[in-house]
Amino acid sequence: MTVADADELVELVRATRALAEHLRDSGATGVAPDAAARAPALDAARPRDLDAAPPPETVGPSSRATPEERAQRLSLLAAEIVGCTRCALAEGRTQTVFARGNPAAEICFVGEGPGADEDAEGLPFVGKAGQLLDRMIAAMGYAADDVYICNIVKCRPPGNRKPEPDELTACLPYLHEQLSLVAPKVIVALGATAAHGLFGAPVSITRARGSWRLYRGRIPVMPTFHPAYLLRQPDAKREVWRDLQEVMQRLGKPR
Ligand code: URA
Predict the structure, then answer these.
(1) Beta strand pairing status for 107-111 and 148-151?
(2) What angle do CA 216, 221, 223 make, to 5 degrees?
(3) Which atom of ligand 1 is nearest to the CA of 151?
(4) Which ligand 1 atom is at minimum distance from the Cα of 149?
(5) What is the dihedral of CA 19, 22, 27, 30, to 10 degrees?
(6) Phi, psi at residue 127, to the nearest 5°?
(7) Ligand 1, CB cutoff 6 Å, lining residues
(8) Which residues contact residue 62 at a Cβ distance below 8 angstroms, ignoring those fewer than 6 apart?
(9) Which of 93, 118, 161 is the best mutation target for the ligand 1 pocket, counting ligand atoms within 8 Å of the beta carbon and taking the most?
């Protein structure tokens, strides 16, 4: 299957899922309740081989929107999420946490979900783990405003526990829309939950880290350890730095 064929197939699957979801949500009869869920996973329709991905400089937003339009649509999405009650996390949050950074960034860091500091400030990665992430980003040669940072779930899980599968499922459409608007050339998945959300299946981060995979057959993802893990296991910083150097090389930045 060529990349063009795969793209077409994915668009077809996406349209089928959207139609099934729309019909189900609008109460249409004659639609199996799980029709949307039974449509093949988008990721499964794509070649897994990174070599089949278009080179980073040709990866762009699926729509032809200008950067200003995309930034505006991201603001609208953030505003929509403020009132979200799709899962139980809505009950415990102080506020939703959407993103920080540059909505036209070439690189996007995806974490797990807000902690106490992020819940209080309304911005991702502003606590201790975030400070370490900022140092890693600076070491890569980026300013804080060069990159885009967001999470798999937009509300703080109580006690900083991992998001439950139903919470991931409820929140993921927001992330998919967010990423299709930012259209980064590369995504860094910070930890197992981020990789799970992006790839659509549970991931052993110890095994997955350091190897490129594709998000929706389109955007190269480098899975690596979460900065909070590095605060507990500083020796693992060496591996993360190796992963980030791979990312820099792919983006043509000096190592
Ligand atoms: N950990 C995350 O995964 N995300 C944040 O925003 C903060 C800590």
Answers:
(1) parallel
(2) 125
(3) 4
(4) 6
(5) 10
(6) -90, -155
(7) 111-115, 118, 124-125, 127, 129-130, 151, 228
(8) 180, 183
(9) 118
Q: How confident is the model at residue 63 (pLDDT cuts 50, 70, 90)?
A: low
**What token pair was written down for 174?**
């927001």
**Pairing state between β 213-215 and 107-111:** unpaired
Per-residue pLDDT band at 64 (split at 50, 70, 90): confident
Q: Cα(46) to centroid of ligand 1, in Å?
A: 29
Question: Which has the closest alpha carbon to 137: 40, 240, 209, 61?
Answer: 240
What value does the mean pLDDT of the chain take? 83
Helix (H, G, I), strand (E, B) or coil at 134: helix
Q: Report the first-to-last Cα separation within the chain, whole angstroms.
A: 35
Ligand 1: residue of 133, 150, 151, 161 to mutate (most ligand atoms within 8 A of CB) is: 151
Q: Separation of 209 CA from ligand 1 center, angstroms? A: 18
Please list, in sequence order, all residues whose beta carbon lies within 8 angstroms of the beta carbon of residue 177, skipping any fewer than 6 positions away: 77
Using the mean position of ligand 1's atoms as its centre, give its distance from the Cα of residue 154 in Å.
Answer: 10
Residue 43 C-alpha to ligand 1 middle, in angstroms? Answer: 25
CA distances (Å), 174 to each of 135, 196, 238, in order?
27, 15, 32
The CA distance from 199 to 254, in Å, is 29
pLDDT recorded at residue 255: 80
**Cα distance between residue 203 and residue 201, in whole Å:** 6
